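Suppose a colleague, Dr. K., hands you the sequence of a protein chain of 222 amino acids and asks what its three-dimensional shape might be. Before reaching for any lab equipment, you can write down a predicted structure in token form. Begin with the sequence itself:
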Amino acid sequence: MLPGYPGCRSGPGQGNFFDSRSVPFYECGLSDDAQLIEAIRAGDSEAFDQLVGRYQDRLYNSLLRVLGSTEDARDVVQDAFVQAYLKLESFRGASAFYTWLYRIAFNLAMSHARKRRPTTSLEQARESFGREPVDGQPLPDMHMVRRERVQMVHAALAALSTESRQILVLRELEGCRYDQIAEILELPVGTVRSRLFRAREQLREQLEPMLREQSVTTHKDA
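The predicted structure, expressed as tokens, is then:
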């Protein structure tokens, strides 16, 4: 569990520090996906629209945390679905469709991240990763504290490498099992475990000074 942040988890179904409300990977309708894929292969273009509608939002949210840019995340999501459509004949069903789709998307994200310039400041990262909808009404104190801590986690995440962000997002945001992450990132399970451990430690190192600063500020204001 990360220091000072409630709700962190080490596995699916226990809440997580990305404040995600998406269902874990394994709860998606696998049989429904198979039926849609068969319909697409039979020439039903609306079936592919259904697949896009099923996965585009959660894929976008994951890629936003990996890339730190709404524009980049939208571009990669679009490219991923285009590639998935063009390559659908090569999909043999050995893995779930969403795992195959995420492999395409995360490969594209890595290529995209190598080509673009990195985030230049923590404030920019905080703005990009920490943005949340606000309804214009005053927030209760506890809600505000929780929201601020979520924003801090997102800012700390932005300071990590794309490789570390990928594995944290897949495990903590998407709730993927180790074998699913291994399949998406095309890594041995042992490498997934070691990279995840390092990424969590790096995130902890980024978070600790932020949490100390917030604690000092809170005590001064009290």
